[in-house]
Amino acid sequence: xxxxxxxxxxxxTLLLATSAAGGVAAVATAVPFVASLTPSERAxxxxxxxxxxxxxxxxxxxxxxxxxxxxVWILRRTPEMLASLDKTDEKVSxxxxxxxxxxxxxxxxxxxxxxxxxxxxxxxxxxxxxxxxKFKVGADSGMGADWPGGFLCPCHGxxxxxxxxxxxxxxxxxxxxxxxxxxxxxxxxxxxxxxxA
Length: 197
Ligand code: FES
What we know:
Strand content: 15-25%
Number of strands: 9
Number of helices: 4
Structural class: alpha+beta
CATH class of the largest domain: Mainly Beta
Mean pLDDT: 84
CATH architecture of the largest domain: 3-layer Sandwich
Bound molecules: FE2/S2 (inorganic) cluster
Number of domains: 2
């Protein structure tokens, strides 16, 4: 067994032992784990902004980047997807994004800087499950004949439209969070920093 393999297996044993031992032990191992990261990995773990190249994203497709340990979705909406927001306006609880849970530039119907791209944290605002994409419309979606596309949280059934706006009377109290972000170029998004801090 090589030295690297030995280190790997001993670290694995340590991780297994500490995760079995519970939260206190996990905190105790946090420092050595962080110390073992490279400087750029350390910065990432601490919440450094993340660049996303959306040049390959086709209309209707979604990609995920990780920021501060959270999944951040970037959905490139088609004109039909954007038009669906007119239909869901009256069904969602905060259609104009009045609640203070997104930056100023996302306080609009599409909740984004550019209408085409939705950038949102893919974590349900109820108890933190990850909603599933339900982009098919109509009966094929399994969500009902009048389903206009959106997201479904499988845990307790909260539904969100294609701007991450939660439907009224759902367990989730709020829309999906829009993280700070900015465009570095036409197809390059910096998630985690909008240059306003
Ligand atoms: S965690 Fe999403 S509905 Fe409960």
